[in-house]
Amino acid sequence: MKKDLDFINDHFGPVTQLHKMIEESGELKEASDEFHYALVIEDDPDEIERKRVHMIEEMADTVIMIKQNERNFCKPGELKAMMQMKIKRTKERIKNGYY
């Protein structure tokens, strides 16, 4: 998969892929909102499932763009370190009653 992502990334370039990540992030937000609404309000299992699958599709698009932009703009290990810091902070907040 990495080879394929590199091929696509090299074809379009970092600026285009950054813009694409912005676009895909917006689409993920919309799909997540729709799925959340369906879980809370809908009583049609088929509609809930359709919205769930659509959200997963947008998650995949967004993760692809994140992986490409990690290559373009992050130092090695930088994203992983930031993720670890964020997870640690959230756990601390949970333990301290912040959430």
Keywords:
99 residues, mainly alpha, flat
In terms of DSSP E residues, the strand content is under 5%
Q: Could you tell me how far the N terminus lies from the C terminus, measured between alpha carbons in angstroms?
A: 37 Å
Mean pLDDT: 97
Biggest beta-sheet profile: none
Number of distinct helices:
4
Helix content: over 70%
Report the order of strands and helices: HHHH
Count the E strands. 0
User: Helix/strand/pairing class, anyone?
Assistant: mainly alpha
Q: Pick out the low-confidence regions.
A: none
Overall radius of gyration: 17 Å
Question: In brief, what are we looking at here?
Answer:
The chain is mainly α and 99 residues long. Helices cover 86% and strands 0% of the residues. It is flat and about 45 Å long.
What would you note in describing this structure?
The protein is mainly alpha-helical and 99 residues long. Helices cover 86% and strands 0% of the residues. α2 (14-40) runs antiparallel to α3.
SSE layout and pairing:
Layout: H1 2-12, H2 14-40, H3 45-73, H4 78-95
Helix pairs in contact: 2-3
